[in-house]
Design brief:
It is a single chain. With 220 residues, the chain is mainly α. It has helices spanning 8-19, 30-39, 45-57, 63-67, 71-77, 84-102, 114-122, 129-139, 149-157, 167-177, 182-199, 210-219. It binds a DNA duplex (13 and 12 nucleotides) through helix 2, helix 3, helix 6, helix 8 and helix 9.
Length: 220
DNA sequence: GACCAGGCACATC
DNA sequence: GATGTGCATGGT
Protein backbone atom coordinates (compact mmCIF):
# COMPACT_ATOMS: atom_id res chain seq x y z
CA UNK A 1 0.00 0.00 0.00
CA UNK A 2 1.49 3.33 -0.90
CA UNK A 3 0.68 6.94 -1.65
CA UNK A 4 -1.69 7.98 1.08
CA UNK A 5 -0.52 5.77 3.94
CA UNK A 6 0.77 8.62 6.01
CA UNK A 7 -2.07 11.03 5.59
CA UNK A 8 -5.15 8.94 5.29
CA UNK A 9 -6.69 11.09 8.00
CA UNK A 10 -5.87 14.24 6.06
CA UNK A 11 -7.50 12.71 3.02
CA UNK A 12 -10.57 12.02 5.09
CA UNK A 13 -10.65 15.59 6.39
CA UNK A 14 -10.34 16.93 2.86
CA UNK A 15 -13.25 14.81 1.68
CA UNK A 16 -15.37 15.87 4.60
CA UNK A 17 -14.58 19.53 3.99
CA UNK A 18 -15.45 19.16 0.33
CA UNK A 19 -18.61 17.08 0.52
CA UNK A 20 -19.83 17.43 4.07
CA UNK A 21 -21.53 14.75 6.14
CA UNK A 22 -23.22 12.09 4.06
CA UNK A 23 -25.66 10.95 6.74
CA UNK A 24 -25.33 7.24 6.05
CA UNK A 25 -27.01 4.88 6.21
CA UNK A 26 -30.37 6.30 5.15
CA UNK A 27 -32.94 4.22 7.02
CA UNK A 28 -35.31 4.58 9.92
CA UNK A 29 -34.47 1.35 11.72
CA UNK A 30 -31.51 -0.99 11.97
CA UNK A 31 -33.57 -3.71 10.34
CA UNK A 32 -34.34 -1.44 7.42
CA UNK A 33 -30.59 -0.88 7.00
CA UNK A 34 -30.05 -4.65 6.91
CA UNK A 35 -32.68 -5.07 4.23
CA UNK A 36 -31.18 -2.19 2.26
CA UNK A 37 -27.73 -3.77 2.44
CA UNK A 38 -28.98 -6.74 0.45
CA UNK A 39 -31.18 -4.75 -1.89
CA UNK A 40 -28.37 -2.42 -2.92
CA UNK A 41 -26.08 -5.20 -4.12
CA UNK A 42 -24.81 -4.00 -7.51
CA UNK A 43 -27.76 -1.63 -7.64
CA UNK A 44 -28.36 2.12 -7.70
CA UNK A 45 -29.65 3.34 -4.35
CA UNK A 46 -32.56 5.16 -6.00
CA UNK A 47 -33.96 1.82 -7.09
CA UNK A 48 -33.52 0.45 -3.60
CA UNK A 49 -35.49 3.36 -2.19
CA UNK A 50 -38.47 2.39 -4.32
CA UNK A 51 -38.35 -1.17 -3.07
CA UNK A 52 -38.02 -0.03 0.55
CA UNK A 53 -40.94 2.35 0.05
CA UNK A 54 -43.07 -0.54 -1.20
CA UNK A 55 -42.28 -2.56 1.91
CA UNK A 56 -42.82 0.40 4.18
CA UNK A 57 -46.18 1.29 2.66
CA UNK A 58 -47.33 -2.29 3.18
CA UNK A 59 -46.01 -2.15 6.76
CA UNK A 60 -43.70 -5.07 6.11
CA UNK A 61 -40.39 -3.81 7.44
CA UNK A 62 -40.10 -6.15 10.39
CA UNK A 63 -38.63 -9.67 10.51
CA UNK A 64 -41.95 -11.37 11.37
CA UNK A 65 -43.82 -9.55 8.60
CA UNK A 66 -41.28 -10.49 5.95
CA UNK A 67 -41.04 -13.99 7.36
CA UNK A 68 -44.74 -14.43 6.70
CA UNK A 69 -44.38 -13.68 2.99
CA UNK A 70 -43.55 -16.25 0.37
CA UNK A 71 -40.41 -15.72 -1.67
CA UNK A 72 -42.63 -14.95 -4.65
CA UNK A 73 -44.66 -12.33 -2.78
CA UNK A 74 -41.56 -10.61 -1.42
CA UNK A 75 -40.03 -10.54 -4.90
CA UNK A 76 -42.96 -8.47 -6.17
CA UNK A 77 -42.51 -5.81 -3.50
CA UNK A 78 -38.80 -5.44 -4.20
CA UNK A 79 -39.06 -5.60 -7.98
CA UNK A 80 -37.79 -2.03 -8.56
CA UNK A 81 -34.46 -2.90 -6.92
CA UNK A 82 -33.64 -5.34 -9.71
CA UNK A 83 -32.43 -8.95 -9.33
CA UNK A 84 -35.65 -9.31 -7.38
CA UNK A 85 -35.87 -13.10 -7.41
CA UNK A 86 -32.36 -13.67 -6.13
CA UNK A 87 -32.63 -10.81 -3.64
CA UNK A 88 -35.91 -12.15 -2.33
CA UNK A 89 -34.22 -15.47 -1.65
CA UNK A 90 -31.29 -13.71 0.03
CA UNK A 91 -33.57 -11.64 2.24
CA UNK A 92 -35.49 -14.73 3.23
CA UNK A 93 -32.20 -16.41 4.17
CA UNK A 94 -31.29 -13.49 6.42
CA UNK A 95 -34.75 -13.34 7.97
CA UNK A 96 -34.90 -17.08 8.56
CA UNK A 97 -31.65 -16.78 10.50
CA UNK A 98 -32.97 -13.86 12.56
CA UNK A 99 -36.22 -15.65 13.31
CA UNK A 100 -34.75 -19.03 14.13
CA UNK A 101 -31.85 -17.79 16.21
CA UNK A 102 -33.26 -14.69 17.87
CA UNK A 103 -37.01 -14.71 17.29
CA UNK A 104 -36.60 -11.74 14.96
CA UNK A 105 -34.82 -9.48 17.43
CA UNK A 106 -31.57 -7.72 16.56
CA UNK A 107 -30.70 -7.10 20.20
CA UNK A 108 -28.70 -10.29 20.82
CA UNK A 109 -26.46 -9.35 17.88
CA UNK A 110 -25.38 -6.18 19.62
CA UNK A 111 -23.38 -8.25 22.11
CA UNK A 112 -21.57 -10.26 19.44
CA UNK A 113 -17.95 -9.53 18.59
CA UNK A 114 -17.21 -8.29 15.10
CA UNK A 115 -15.43 -11.53 14.06
CA UNK A 116 -18.37 -13.57 15.33
CA UNK A 117 -20.87 -11.39 13.47
CA UNK A 118 -18.84 -11.57 10.32
CA UNK A 119 -18.61 -15.32 10.51
CA UNK A 120 -22.33 -15.76 11.11
CA UNK A 121 -23.38 -13.32 8.41
CA UNK A 122 -20.98 -14.75 5.83
CA UNK A 123 -22.46 -18.18 6.46
CA UNK A 124 -25.78 -16.94 5.11
CA UNK A 125 -26.14 -17.57 1.39
CA UNK A 126 -26.35 -14.24 -0.39
CA UNK A 127 -24.36 -12.25 2.14
CA UNK A 128 -20.78 -11.62 1.08
CA UNK A 129 -18.06 -9.51 2.62
CA UNK A 130 -19.34 -6.10 1.67
CA UNK A 131 -22.91 -6.84 2.71
CA UNK A 132 -21.75 -8.39 5.99
CA UNK A 133 -19.54 -5.42 6.79
CA UNK A 134 -22.27 -2.96 5.81
CA UNK A 135 -24.67 -4.66 8.20
CA UNK A 136 -22.10 -4.70 11.01
CA UNK A 137 -21.14 -1.04 10.55
CA UNK A 138 -24.37 0.61 9.49
CA UNK A 139 -27.04 -1.54 11.13
CA UNK A 140 -25.22 -2.77 14.23
CA UNK A 141 -22.95 0.26 14.67
CA UNK A 142 -19.72 -1.62 15.21
CA UNK A 143 -16.37 -0.45 13.76
CA UNK A 144 -15.60 -2.56 10.72
CA UNK A 145 -14.47 -0.87 7.49
CA UNK A 146 -16.61 -1.44 4.41
CA UNK A 147 -14.86 -1.89 1.07
CA UNK A 148 -16.77 -1.67 -2.17
CA UNK A 149 -16.11 -1.24 -5.87
CA UNK A 150 -15.75 2.52 -5.42
CA UNK A 151 -13.11 2.04 -2.72
CA UNK A 152 -11.16 -0.27 -4.94
CA UNK A 153 -11.53 1.84 -8.07
CA UNK A 154 -10.73 5.19 -6.46
CA UNK A 155 -7.60 3.93 -4.69
CA UNK A 156 -6.37 1.80 -7.59
CA UNK A 157 -6.86 4.62 -10.12
CA UNK A 158 -4.55 6.86 -8.20
CA UNK A 159 -1.90 4.29 -7.45
CA UNK A 160 -2.61 4.08 -3.74
CA UNK A 161 -3.12 0.32 -3.82
CA UNK A 162 -1.93 -2.46 -6.06
CA UNK A 163 -4.46 -3.42 -8.69
CA UNK A 164 -4.45 -6.96 -7.36
CA UNK A 165 -5.22 -6.00 -3.76
CA UNK A 166 -8.14 -8.00 -2.49
CA UNK A 167 -11.01 -7.04 -0.20
CA UNK A 168 -9.37 -8.08 3.05
CA UNK A 169 -6.13 -6.26 2.25
CA UNK A 170 -7.88 -2.98 1.49
CA UNK A 171 -10.05 -3.32 4.58
CA UNK A 172 -6.96 -3.98 6.69
CA UNK A 173 -5.23 -0.96 5.18
CA UNK A 174 -7.96 1.39 6.37
CA UNK A 175 -8.42 -0.25 9.74
CA UNK A 176 -4.71 -0.24 10.54
CA UNK A 177 -4.32 3.46 9.76
CA UNK A 178 -7.42 4.76 11.47
CA UNK A 179 -8.75 4.71 15.00
CA UNK A 180 -11.54 2.19 15.60
CA UNK A 181 -14.33 4.69 15.37
CA UNK A 182 -17.82 3.84 14.14
CA UNK A 183 -18.59 7.39 13.04
CA UNK A 184 -15.26 7.71 11.23
CA UNK A 185 -15.69 4.41 9.38
CA UNK A 186 -19.27 5.32 8.56
CA UNK A 187 -18.44 8.72 7.11
CA UNK A 188 -15.25 7.69 5.36
CA UNK A 189 -16.85 4.92 3.37
CA UNK A 190 -19.77 7.15 2.43
CA UNK A 191 -17.39 9.89 1.30
CA UNK A 192 -15.41 7.47 -0.83
CA UNK A 193 -18.62 6.47 -2.57
CA UNK A 194 -19.28 10.16 -3.16
CA UNK A 195 -15.83 10.67 -4.70
CA UNK A 196 -16.32 7.60 -6.84
CA UNK A 197 -19.62 8.87 -8.17
CA UNK A 198 -18.20 12.31 -8.92
CA UNK A 199 -14.70 11.60 -10.16
CA UNK A 200 -13.94 7.96 -10.73
CA UNK A 201 -16.50 6.55 -13.08
CA UNK A 202 -15.50 3.27 -14.74
CA UNK A 203 -14.69 4.47 -18.24
CA UNK A 204 -14.28 8.18 -17.76
CA UNK A 205 -11.02 9.82 -16.87
CA UNK A 206 -10.85 11.19 -13.35
CA UNK A 207 -11.14 14.95 -13.24
CA UNK A 208 -10.47 17.31 -10.40
CA UNK A 209 -10.25 14.44 -7.97
CA UNK A 210 -9.50 15.27 -4.32
CA UNK A 211 -7.30 12.19 -4.06
CA UNK A 212 -4.99 13.44 -6.80
CA UNK A 213 -3.37 15.90 -4.43
CA UNK A 214 -2.63 13.32 -1.80
CA UNK A 215 -1.36 10.50 -3.96
CA UNK A 216 0.81 12.89 -5.93
CA UNK A 217 2.26 14.76 -2.97
CA UNK A 218 3.38 11.68 -1.11
CA UNK A 219 4.90 9.90 -4.06
CA UNK A 220 7.33 12.71 -4.80
C1' DG B 1 -28.98 1.81 -27.41
C1' DA B 2 -25.05 1.46 -24.40
C1' DC B 3 -23.57 2.07 -19.99
C1' DC B 4 -23.88 2.08 -15.13
C1' DA B 5 -25.45 1.16 -10.30
C1' DG B 6 -23.18 1.15 -2.54
C1' DG B 7 -22.38 -7.92 -5.09
C1' DC B 8 -22.78 -12.65 -4.81
C1' DA B 9 -22.89 -17.51 -5.89
C1' DC B 10 -21.95 -20.93 -8.93
C1' DA B 11 -20.00 -23.40 -13.10
C1' DT B 12 -16.11 -24.43 -15.51
C1' DC B 13 -11.41 -24.66 -16.69
C1' DG C 1 -7.26 -20.50 -7.49
C1' DA C 2 -8.60 -17.63 -11.26
C1' DT C 3 -11.94 -16.39 -14.60
C1' DG C 4 -16.66 -16.04 -16.67
C1' DT C 5 -21.60 -15.66 -16.21
C1' DG C 6 -26.45 -14.98 -14.57
C1' DC C 7 -29.24 -12.11 -12.03
C1' DA C 8 -32.90 -7.19 -13.70
C1' DT C 9 -34.74 -2.62 -12.87
C1' DG C 10 -34.36 2.27 -13.85
C1' DG C 11 -31.70 6.59 -14.78
C1' DT C 12 -28.40 9.00 -17.88
Amino acid sequence: MRGIDNNLTEFYEALLARYGHQHWWPGETDFEVMVGAILTQNTNWKNVEKAIANLKTADLLTPPALDALTEKQLAEYIRPAGYFNIKSRRLKNLIRWLMEEFEGSLDPLRDYSIPRLREELLAINGIGRETADSIILYALHKPTFVVDTYTYRVLARHGCIDAESDYEQIKEFFESHLSEDVELFNEFHALIVQVGKNHCRPRAQCANCPLETFAHTIEE
